[in-house]
Amino acid sequence: MRFIYIAIFLLAALVTNPNDAQSLSRSDITLSSNTMARGDVILVTVKSAREEKPRVTWMDKEISLVFNPAITSWQGFVAADLDQKEGVYPVLATMPSSGVKETFNIGVTDKDYGVRNLTLPKEKVELDAESLKRVEKEAAVVKALWTIPAATPEWRGSFLNPLDGEIVGTFGKRSVINKLERSPHTGVDVRGNTGDPVKAINNGKAVLVADHFFTGNSVYVDHGGGIISMYFHLDKILVRDGDTIEKGQTIGLAGATGRATGPHLHWGMRVNGARVNPLTLIDLSRGLEE
Length: 290
Ligand SMILES: [Zn+2]
Description:
The protein is mostly beta strands and 290 residues long. 13% of the residues lie in helices and 39% in strands. The chain contains 3 helices and 23 strands. It has helices at residues 2-15, 129-145, 278-285, and strands at residues 29-31, 35-37, 41-47, 55-58, 61-63, 66-68, 73-79, 87-94, 101-109, 115-118, 167-169, 174-177, 180-182, 187-191, 197-199, 204-212, 216-222, 227-234, 236-237, 244-245, 250-253, 264-271, 274-276. The strands form 5 sheets. Strands 11, 14, 16, 17, 18, 20, 22 and 23 form an 8-stranded antiparallel sheet that branches. A 5-stranded mixed sheet has the order 2-9-8-4-5, with no helix packed on it. The longest helix is centred in the middle third of the chain and has 17 residues, at 129-145. The chain binds zinc ion.
């Protein structure tokens, strides 16, 4: 008799503890890794119904999530800036309707990305007063982009390569220009010929189209959800400020405008303001539902 009571009790416990959309347990959350180097990205997947969008925050910033119907999950990217200090930083996930919370730790490690030595014309490095003024003005325009509140995610599925070509400049390298330490390399350089079509890596909106001193003809695409891609040194720009951009759309032609040693595409990414390796984002996004 006692055995039957226990059996009924266990059965009742199972039935009244449904694994419905409102519950949240560790098994519902998958991180592509528990650790990453500074300048890297982690894919977070939360198993949950479309109607039950979880809230995920990291370093006091909300991680924008996109629903993936193929696996009934919400997915987004957690990004550590190139200058992020080593440490363990908690991710907080909350289900809005039930308020159920879970905390996960992500470790950020240091990484030696190497050094690049460049020799450039003196006037492109040691700026005269007029150029300096121009550079400062342009830097302020770009900086303003990082403080715009994240728009609704327009990106869907995997991110594309903007230009097929050999990577001739890797992400994160310290830059020694004419024997002096300068800002690190915050994107990747893809070899290309002048005139090669450069494609938008995902859907979005052109939020800045400009000809800048260092970056030449430049296009910044906001993919929503705090993800911005940038394409520099273009020979020609084929979009305008405010244009809606489709994934794979040719937004410009590769070139060597601005401070460039030859024709190539400099391609950079920001995720929630963090400067990250674009190649990691591409890798992690493979297989995401369109
Ligand atoms: Zn570059």
